[in-house]
Amino acid sequence: MGKRKPFGRKGNKGNKGGAWKKPRTEHQATDKEAGFGEWVYENASFEKYYKAQNIVLEEEWEAFVKHLAMPLPTTFRINNSCAYAEKIQERIASDFKFEDLVIDGEKVDPISQMQWYPDGKGFQWSVERRKIKKLEILSEFQKWLVNLSDAGDITRQEAVSMIPPLVLGVESHHKVLDMCAAPGSKTSQLLESLHADESKTGKLPTGLVVANDIDIKRAYMLVHQTKRVGSPALVITCHEAQKFPLLSSTDNKQGFFDRILCDAPCSGDGTMRKNPLIWQKWHVKNGLSLHPLQLSIAKHGTSLLKIGGRMCYSTCTFNPIENEAVVAELLRWSNGALKLVDVSEVLPRLKRRAGISTWTVMDHDLNEVAGFDADAEEKRGQYKKLLPTMFPPTKEEAESFYLERCMRCLPHDENTGGFFICLLEKVAPTPDDAVAETDSKSSNKKSKSTGEEYLDFKDYDDIKTSYKMKDEFEASQLFTRSDTGKSVTFVTSSVSKELLPAMKALNMKVVYAGIKMFERHDLGVGASGMYRLTQTGSHIAKPFMQTRKLEVCNRDFQYMLERRGDLLQFDVFTDKLKDIFISSPLGSYVCTLARDDGVPLTTPEQMLLNLVVWRGRNTVNVMTSKPDGLALAATLKALNLYDEALGAEIAALKQSKKDKAQTEEKKSNDKPDSNEE
Ligand SMILES: C[S@@+](CC[C@H](N)C(=O)[O-])C[C@H]1O[C@@H](n2cnc3c(N)ncnc32)[C@H](O)[C@@H]1O
């Protein structure tokens, strides 16, 4: 062990021990920025422990630790819901390949598609994220990435973290539970899969996603993260996953969910590349202490699963105690009710390692322990006790468990972080199902519920009249939050008819649900309704609305979009729209683009190219948030409907207004106060 030269660079030779010290000169400034000070890429315990496990061959050890000490490449994926994925792929190929880029005197590889990611929608670049942010030559690319990300078209996510939702295979009719969901990058992916058909069929999914986390602050991170997807099929909850109330399905079969993601809390040594502090903190006890929790969460997950349903168990640690040992015990305990699914055909181009059936258990002092001995464990004391479930399966068990069907991603295979993933199918009731059936009411009472109650919305007549809603619109899909009743939430019928009643029956609270479709507004005299339509709800409400829908030409659409936030006089619009606004009553309108070339909009375009405006007494105000505005502008550009000259004209107009306001402000600041003596 000792100090190393920078790997991946000239002079990187002779790494025999497998420990890496961060090259001070190159990373000093960034380390300080990150607040970590100097850190060392070595940990003798880590080395001893993992050399004794069965997961990295001796001849690979050097490559393994070398990659663990390298910064992670930048990775991002085009979201499943993005209607113009090819345009993004084309833009990267034409403008952002960076084929001859030199950074710090070294040529860097161009951005490449991750070969294993479906449909060429995953990208990887060896330049780390913080460098992209800092380098002037990459500023246009950085801006482009941020805009696409704000618009919900791409997600910057670690490559291996993209795998569990892909393995889980969510379809639009599935009821999905994400047991430990925050901060939520996988929840977003699950939602994207749930909504994947919507852009083709125009129909909302019949399934749903419940995203849960034990920590209320982190549950609110989920609210933020999933906002970009804007799903009426999402409910966020805050429970201990191992006590998540046993919802019953309407057909009274055990288990409510078709798919469960159990992305368990873990010691996280697969994330060392992102979080180098783990090098210092790594200790064998971290994994040992988490094993019982992981097992109880995963076991409980199987009780929440329907027969025929599937659960993906994943962690971001290499540790067999937190991975295969948990899975082996699930299989042992289930007595044949759970089976590991062979996922070798899923993501066939992804390099992965098969799960293992033998591993080495070590105590807190890193002594190998050959087998479970209850008496010896008693003597060890409460906090150092090893459990029988931590030990590898017997030979006979191993033959029936097929632990090789689990997969482990190692950093030197695809230049990623480390990850463990497996897929379990429930083929019969699990042992706890029977207990759950008799005990569900009392155990549910014990589970603390954090959040709010969602109440039936009572004012639908007002909305029905204002927007002349068709009878087919289900008012029962509208809810208000218990606090103010100001905001009106829309959820899919699976949420309103199945999930929320089942949750209510168990006194479960909701942290967040669905999308905001209307908000109460004091319209004053002359207004025709109390409820203002929101941009997020507009594409769902519009097909049911028989009034307050306008078709606008390219120019007016772009004009409104780019002057978002300004109060627009009627005469800034083309004559046709100006006359419409003058003769229309106050209130919300959905303006849909009617292309000047007469080409009808496709289903995804119809869903996207709407702008909600507020027609006030003398002005029109565009009610679109910045991310939604960016998404719309990006769509116009992708469809070649964006007029650059108009864009420049509006930018100049905005700048001149800003300059004028600044001059006025300066003048008033310079003016002597009349009261001054
Ligand atoms: C590995 S992270 C999950 C990452 C997440 N799936 C994602 O992709 O963004 C583990 C999460 O589990 C949560 N957690 C820890 N213990 C839990 C428990 N007993 N029940 C539910 N969530 C728990 C933590 O708050 C943390 O947010």
From TrEMBL:
GO MF annotations, alphabetized: tRNA (cytidine-5-)-methyltransferase activity; tRNA binding
Residue ranges of every copy of the SAM-dependent MTase RsmB/NOP-type domain listed in the record: 64-427
Keyword Nucleus: yes
One Gene Ontology term from the biological process aspect of the record: tRNA methylation
Cellular component GO terms, alphabetical: nucleus
UniProt name for this protein: tRNA (Cytosine-5-)-methyltransferase NSUN2
Bias type Basic and acidic residues, positions: 656-677
PROSITE patterns registered for this protein in UniProt: NOL1_NOP2_SUN (PS01153), SAM_MT_RSMB_NOP (PS51686)
Alphabetical list of InterPro entries matching this protein: MeTrfase_RsmB-F_NOP2_cat, MeTrfase_RsmB-F_NOP2_dom, Pre-PUA_NSUN2, RCMT, RCMT_NCL1, RsmB/NOL1/NOP2-like_CS, SAM-dependent_MTases_sf
Location in or out of the cell: Nucleus
Compositional bias ranges of the Basic residues kind: 1-22
Pfam family, one: Methyltr_RsmB-F
Annotated spans, Disordered: 1-30, 654-677
Keywords carried by this UniProt record: Methyltransferase, Nucleus, RNA-binding, S-adenosyl-L-methionine, Transferase, tRNA processing, tRNA-binding
Similarity comment: Belongs to the class I-like SAM-binding methyltransferase superfamily. RsmB/NOP family.
Binding site for S-adenosyl-L-methionine: C180, A181, A182, P183, G184, S185, K186, D213, D263
Active-site annotation: C316 (nucleophile)
